[in-house]
């Protein structure tokens, strides 16, 4: 029984480290993939078109920023949820071992520490609202990506159409800035962490003028 307890203690302590390492690798990989995707798109786009500077200096960095934030929130939400589920399951096993005769007193201490850890990660996950922020940034990223693709494809652009390349550029800039403003508006109205994912997606869709 002592061997099982020590194995559980070692696993409980090593799990956050393993999750942190995997999360970091996933985050870096996602950032690299997004930069590569944007770089590939830029390589095939014509040079000198109206709005190129705004696209390169404002839209693409913002898309990359939203992608990084969405990935970070997704990683935090997943890791904290895995820790909460795993540690909660281990509490039952440790309490069962604690009822065995002759078990050391630190068995109950370990179960108490696990309970405190579960309460902590659950509280952090609820307070930071990583899931809601994940969906928020994901929606903003996808919306900007869609507007970018529509603008560079040369098709009929969403919104009130103004004739000519300059009019298209102005419409593109106005729409993108409106989408970006959604984030600051939501943070001002919901400083506790944003809205649910469905409301976030609806707000992003409403920015399509």
3D architecture notes:
Helices cover 82% and strands 0% of the residues. The protein is an all-alpha fold. It has one domain. The longest helix has 47 residues, at 52-98. The protein is elongated and about 80 Å long.
- Kindly report the oligomeric state of this protein: single chain
N-end to C-end Cα span: 65 Å
Number of domains: 1
Order of helices and strands: HHHHHH
Mean pLDDT: 78
Helix content: over 70%
Please tell me how large the radius of gyration is. 24 Å
Give the gist of this structure.
The protein has 209 residues and is mostly helical. The chain is 82% helix and 0% strand.
Supply database-style keywords.
6 helices; mainly alpha; 82% helix; 209 residues; single chain
Strand and helix map with partners:
Blueprint: H1 2-44, H2 52-98, H3 106-128, H4 130-153, H5 165-189, H6 197-206
């Amino acid at each position: 029984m002592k061997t099982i307890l020590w194995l559980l203690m070692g696993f409980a302590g090593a799990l956050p480290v393993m999750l942190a390492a995997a999360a970091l690798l996933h985050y870096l990989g996602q950032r690299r993939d997004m930069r590569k995707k944007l770089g590939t798109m830029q390589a095939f786009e014509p040079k000198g078109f109206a709005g190129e500077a705004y696209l390169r200096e404002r839209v693409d960095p913002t898309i990359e920023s939203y992608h990084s934030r969405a990935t970070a929130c997704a990683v935090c939400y997943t890791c904290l949820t895995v820790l909460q589920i795993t540690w909660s399951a281990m509490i039952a096993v440790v309490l069962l071992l604690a009822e065995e005769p002759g078990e050391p007193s630190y068995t109950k201490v370990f179960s108490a520490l696990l309970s405190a850890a579960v309460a902590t990660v659950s509280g952090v996950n609820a307070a930071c609202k990583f899931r809601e922020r994940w969906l928020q940034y994901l929606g903003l990223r996808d919306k900007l990506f869609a507007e970018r693709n529509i603008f560079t494809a040369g098709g009929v652009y969403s919104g009130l159409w103004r004739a000519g390349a300059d009019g298209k550029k102005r419409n593109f800039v106005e729409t993108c800035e409106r989408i970006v403003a959604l984030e600051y508006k939501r943070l001002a109205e919901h400083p506790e962490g944003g809205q649910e994912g469905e409301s976030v997606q609806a707000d992003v869709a409403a920015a399509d003028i």
